[in-house]
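To whoever is on call:

I kicked off a structure prediction for a single chain this morning and the downstream step that reads the tokens threw a length-mismatch warning. I double-checked the sequence; it's 250 residues and nothing unusual in it as far as I can see. Pasting both halves so you can look.
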Amino acid sequence: MSENARKLRGSSLAENVRTIGYALLIALFIRALLFQPFFIPSSSMESTLLIGDYLFVAKYSYGYSRHSLPFSPPIFSGRIAGVQPERGDIAVFKQPIDNRTDFIKRVIGLPGDTVQMKGGVLYLNDKAVPRVRVDDFIQRDAAGNVHRIPQYRETLPNGVSYITLDRMRDSVWDNTGLYIVPAGHYFMMGDNRDNSSDSRVPDAVGYVPFENLIGKAEIIFFSADGSAAFWQFWRWPSAIRWDRIGKWVD
């Protein structure tokens, strides 16, 4: 190989390494400061979010904390450019128990609020949150059996309205004690009220510190019902939930 060919090859390799490095830096910047993809692994937010939904979380919505960065490095505390979440936001946060696991729930209680469940009805600051019965949520299990689950439209004091599921009457979390949200913390709940580990469960989630918030769920960019394995490409079209792609989260 000639000297010129060697130099050209070395120059090409260095250029490729630089290009890959720039691409990684751009991807890290986007993930840390703008948008982070998130996968829905559980049914705790049904029927708003389904298992198999992939969505983008806006990292800038609440400002930035150490949890905005991969692996949550302890390089600073508190939040930079912090913006308080609003009641009804669907937010991703680090579970306070381990500060590692990502959870997604709806913001229900703000600092200083009182929260309580009575007979399946949510009470905020001693006032019942209005809820109206709507059409059942239709769910089909792996055996093809159809299940009808009661749904209610709940409307928070700030006007944010959303659907909740009520799978069981008088379940263990349909009646709770009174929670008083501490300063700098938030009370989070899943829309699937009888199947959600959230702030009602102190040893699972409890009150969520402002610092633990990662971002606000914004838009579903892909969704699949799990009926096709990754190698079953011929089944992908029927497994994809086309009607959910591009759907805004609320």
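Update from on-call: the warning came from a stale cache, not from the record. Cleared it. Sanity check on the structure: The longest helix spans residues 3-34.
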